[in-house]
UniProtKB/TrEMBL annotation:
<dbReference type="GO" id="GO:0004715">
    <property type="term" value="F:non-membrane spanning protein tyrosine kinase activity"/>
</dbReference>
<dbReference type="InterPro" id="IPR027417">
    <property type="entry name" value="P-loop_NTPase"/>
</dbReference>
<keyword id="KW-0547">Nucleotide-binding</keyword>
<dbReference type="GO" id="GO:0005886">
    <property type="term" value="C:plasma membrane"/>
</dbReference>
<feature type="domain" description="AAA">
    <location>
        <begin position="113"/>
        <end position="252"/>
    </location>
</feature>
<dbReference type="InterPro" id="IPR025669">
    <property type="entry name" value="AAA_dom"/>
</dbReference>
<keyword id="KW-0829">Tyrosine-protein kinase</keyword>
<dbReference type="InterPro" id="IPR005702">
    <property type="entry name" value="Wzc-like_C"/>
</dbReference>
<protein>
    <recommendedName>
        <fullName>non-specific protein-tyrosine kinase</fullName>
        <ecNumber>2.7.10.2</ecNumber>
    </recommendedName>
</protein>
<keyword id="KW-0067">ATP-binding</keyword>
<keyword id="KW-0808">Transferase</keyword>
<comment type="similarity">
    <text>Belongs to the CpsD/CapB family.</text>
</comment>
<keyword id="KW-0418">Kinase</keyword>
<dbReference type="InterPro" id="IPR050445">
    <property type="entry name" value="Bact_polysacc_biosynth/exp"/>
</dbReference>
<dbReference type="GO" id="GO:0005524">
    <property type="term" value="F:ATP binding"/>
</dbReference>
<dbReference type="Pfam" id="PF13614">
    <property type="entry name" value="AAA_31"/>
</dbReference>
Length: 302
């Protein structure tokens, strides 16, 4: 049994996670502990943050699809690749939770945080591929937000400019949602970059304006799935702050690399979240699922 499996088993015994069915591409564990405080504590009948601000021309950017494919991301020209199939499995419980949010009591279920314990475990790789996979569905739209404001990487990987983004929006109430929203040449995918570096980025992410933003983007656009790529949990406090704003968290774990104590500490920091799922990344072992062998050597190059 690997160090990751030991850690997850120990966390389950402590009541931190509930092990769910194993799939061919990930080990997903869900935990439902306590509910995030009611959204009405942040906004009244009329929101202080108006995302439907005056109309401005759409800013459309072109993703560098060739570079993405060369770097091991989902290939837009190969919908049947193993990686594409694996992310179909990864996204399904997340989408199911969104569709059943009213019955299962998950608050802001359409807001999903992708995080890791330490740098280099593959969270940005997962964030981008998950966003691409969901955006390829006909009835789903995705907003991918780079909330790793200290070391943003999404704009670089997609081949777009890290223009005015989340930090500028949080810093200046004159900056509107439309000012930072970038539509892409994938019709159902939009991007918000991290924006400039800021010495008080942690305070901005924990500000009331950020809480209002999360509530508004969840409530106003219920048909949109919002994916936040966050800083590592144990490196910056920002990830734990962001985890309180979302309905679902995916904790990316580097197989055979992340120590058991690190996994336990990360899981405990997420114990107040409605749903926590773990994604075992970078594993090269083969697992027999329904008579088929799968190996996951492509994950986590970043």
């Amino acid at each position: 049994m690997s160090i990751i499996e030991n850690a997850l088993n120990k966390a389950a015994k402590q009541g931190l996670i509930i092990t769910s069915e194993r799939t061919d591409s990930v080990e997903l564990d869900s935990a439902r502990d306590r509910k995030i405080s009611d959204a009405n504590s942040f906004v009244g009948e009329k929101s202080a943050v108006d995302l439907a601000s005056k109309a401005v021309p759409d800013r459309v950017v072109n993703i560098d699809w060739q570079a993405l494919s060369e770097n091991g991301f989902i290939d837009s020209n190969n919908a049947k690749s193993q990686l594409a199939e694996e992310f179909r499995v990864i996204k399904r419980p997340l989408v199911n939770n969104i569709q059943g949010a009213e019955s299962n009591g998950i608050n802001r279920s359409n807001l999903i945080l992708i995080c890791s314990s330490l740098p280099g475990e593959g969270k940005t790789f997962v964030s981008i591929n998950l966003a691409l996979s969901i955006a390829n569905e006909r009835d789903k739209s995705v907003l991918l937000i780079d909330a790793d404001v200290e070391k943003p990487n999404i704009a670089k990987q997609l081949g777009i400019d890290n223009s005015r983004g989340l930090i500028e929006y949080l810093e200046d109430d004159k900056v509107t949602f439309s000012d930072i929203l970038l539509k892409t040449d994938l019709p159902n995918l939009s991007i918000i970059t991290a924006g400039k570096r800021h010495k008080y980025s942690t305070e901005l992410l924990s500000s009331q304006r950020m809480y209002l933003f999360a509530e508004e983007v969840s409530r106003r656009y219920r048909d949109r799935i919002v994916i936040f790529d966050s800083p590592p949990l144990l490196v910056a406090t920002q990830a734990q702050i962001l985890a309180e704003l979302v309905g679902q968290v995916v904790l990316v774990i580097a197989a055979e690399a992340t120590p058991q104590s690190v996994v336990n500490e990360s899981v405990s920091k997420l114990s107040n979240c409605d749903v926590v799922m773990t994604l075992l990344n970078k594993t090269r072992k083969e697992i027999d699922i329904y008579g088929h062998n799968y190996s996951y050597g492509k994950y986590g190059h970043f």
